């Protein structure tokens, strides 16, 4: 697997608090990768190190074969849409495009103008007078027209209504396919990630908890319902992610690559959101990285 981002033992400390620790992962190139985790898990810290805005306290990070922020050529390879999809309220749409052209040596003006026309954005309109969805689309246009190899997005749709989110994510998928982009997308909205991403990384308590292809994660997580029993009695190949019990019944979310043969269990598939929530709220909080290759 070719990695767009590779980290080994990466950590970032603020005073006595580690915002990210012992982070070892490979972000596959040519994929749309979702990054999830609760507030304070280290998502924004990781993304800021990917784009070169923060230096690590420990460990190493390599982005597209080089050091993050390591000179103009390296910076040109990475596009970044930060939280709140920042634009300049006093500048028009056209002025944003002219600014993008001046600041980015690989700028593709034709791509930017075609996208603005397709979105129906008025070039003469100031960004401060655009809707939230339109500002997000303008910020995405700037990121795409930079012609990066890796596009990093930090919670770009959190403040948008459902229709604007759908339109933004549709535009992102189209751009990723058209320009062969690697995408790293952070979001709390797991349903949106399931729609557009094919690989998932979960941060929990400042560490990587799960990483793998989404299809594999969905296939390997099962919901078992049956007579009450101690989860420790399950076969060794069935890793319990979360468990709940009544007086007579147990409900377990397990991760396994093997069929469940015990006829006492009712076996059901679960969605990605259920899997993510189980790791965030389940009793098993061991920091070990679980990787599906």
UniProtKB/TrEMBL annotation:
Domain of life here? Answer: Bacteria
Keyword S-adenosyl-L-methionine: yes or no? no
**Signal peptide position in this chain?**
none
Any idea where the ABC transporter domain is?
5-230
UniProt keyword list: ATP-binding, Nucleotide-binding, Transport
Q: Is the keyword Ubl conjugation assigned to this protein?
A: no
Query: What is the protein's given name?
Result: ABC transporter ATP-binding protein
Organism (species): Actinomadura parmotrematis
